Amino acid sequence: MGFEKFLFYVFALITLWAAGMVITRRNPVHAVLFLVLAFVTSAALWVLLEAEFLGIVLILVYVGAVMVLFLFVVMMLDVDIATLRAGFIRYLPLGALVTVVMAIEMLLVVGPANFGLDTFPAPAPLGADVSNTRELGLLLYTVYLYPVEIASVILLVAIVAAIRLTLRHRPDTKYIDPSRQVSVKKGPDRIRIVKMATEDRVPMPALAGGHSQDKEETE
C-alpha cells in the first residue's frame, strides 16, 4: 500500500465517522462542527484526486462561509435539546431502515459493476502544467452548459422564494417604513418638551455599619 492510498483510507474513514456523528449527535452545535470536519476531509480527498480547485472551493465556500453561518444560526435559535433527545429513540428504527436502503442503492449505482477498474481504468497522472480549473470551466460552459443554466435558475427561484417567505406581513411583527422615516419633520407632533417640578433627593442607602449605628442612636 502506497502512502497516497494510505492517506485516502485515513481521510475516507474520518469522513464517514464525521458524517455518522452529524446524524447521531443530539446537540445541534456539535453536529455542525462534525459537518465542518466532514467537509475538510472531503476537501483533502479532492486534493488527492488532483482536483485542487474543488478542494479549495469546498473549504472556502462551505467551511468558511456556509457552515459558519449555519453555526451562528443554530446557536441563535432556541433549540429544545430535551425534545430532540426524546424523539431520537422513537425515530431510530425508521432512520436505520432508511440508512440501509440508501446504502444498498449507492452500492448498486456506484459499485464495482458500474465503476470498477475494468470499466473506468485509473487515469494517467496529469502534468504540472495542466490546470484543473481551466478543464472544469471548459466542461461546465461547453458540454454541461444547459444543466448549469438550469441549476442557476432553480437556485435563483429558491432565493426569491426564501426572501418572499421572510417578508410575510404578520400582525404581531413590527416593521419599519423608510418612506415615513424620511418624511419626518420637526414640530410639536414629533417632540414634546415637558417641564417637571424638582423632587426631593432620595437618600442613598447607607452602609451596613452606618445603618446599625443610626439604629442604636435612635434607640
Automatic annotation (TrEMBL):
<keyword id="KW-0560">Oxidoreductase</keyword>
<feature type="transmembrane region" description="Helical">
    <location>
        <begin position="144"/>
        <end position="167"/>
    </location>
</feature>
<protein>
    <recommendedName>
        <fullName>NADH-quinone oxidoreductase subunit J</fullName>
        <ecNumber>7.1.1.-</ecNumber>
    </recommendedName>
</protein>
<comment type="similarity">
    <text>Belongs to the complex I subunit 6 family.</text>
</comment>
<dbReference type="GO" id="GO:0048038">
    <property type="term" value="F:quinone binding"/>
</dbReference>
<keyword id="KW-0472">Membrane</keyword>
<dbReference type="InterPro" id="IPR001457">
    <property type="entry name" value="NADH_UbQ/plastoQ_OxRdtase_su6"/>
</dbReference>
<keyword id="KW-0812">Transmembrane</keyword>
<dbReference type="InterPro" id="IPR042106">
    <property type="entry name" value="Nuo/plastoQ_OxRdtase_6_NuoJ"/>
</dbReference>
<keyword id="KW-1133">Transmembrane helix</keyword>
<feature type="transmembrane region" description="Helical">
    <location>
        <begin position="31"/>
        <end position="49"/>
    </location>
</feature>
<feature type="transmembrane region" description="Helical">
    <location>
        <begin position="91"/>
        <end position="111"/>
    </location>
</feature>
<keyword id="KW-1003">Cell membrane</keyword>
<comment type="function">
    <text>NDH-1 shuttles electrons from NADH, via FMN and iron-sulfur (Fe-S) centers, to quinones in the respiratory chain. Couples the redox reaction to proton translocation (for every two electrons transferred, four hydrogen ions are translocated across the cytoplasmic membrane), and thus conserves the redox energy in a proton gradient.</text>
</comment>
<comment type="subunit">
    <text>Composed of 13 different subunits. Subunits NuoA, H, J, K, L, M, N constitute the membrane sector of the complex.</text>
</comment>
<keyword id="KW-0874">Quinone</keyword>
<dbReference type="Pfam" id="PF00499">
    <property type="entry name" value="Oxidored_q3"/>
</dbReference>
<keyword id="KW-0520">NAD</keyword>
<dbReference type="GO" id="GO:0008137">
    <property type="term" value="F:NADH dehydrogenase (ubiquinone) activity"/>
</dbReference>
<dbReference type="GO" id="GO:0016491">
    <property type="term" value="F:oxidoreductase activity"/>
</dbReference>
<dbReference type="GO" id="GO:0005886">
    <property type="term" value="C:plasma membrane"/>
</dbReference>
<feature type="transmembrane region" description="Helical">
    <location>
        <begin position="55"/>
        <end position="79"/>
    </location>
</feature>
<feature type="transmembrane region" description="Helical">
    <location>
        <begin position="6"/>
        <end position="24"/>
    </location>
</feature>
<keyword id="KW-0830">Ubiquinone</keyword>
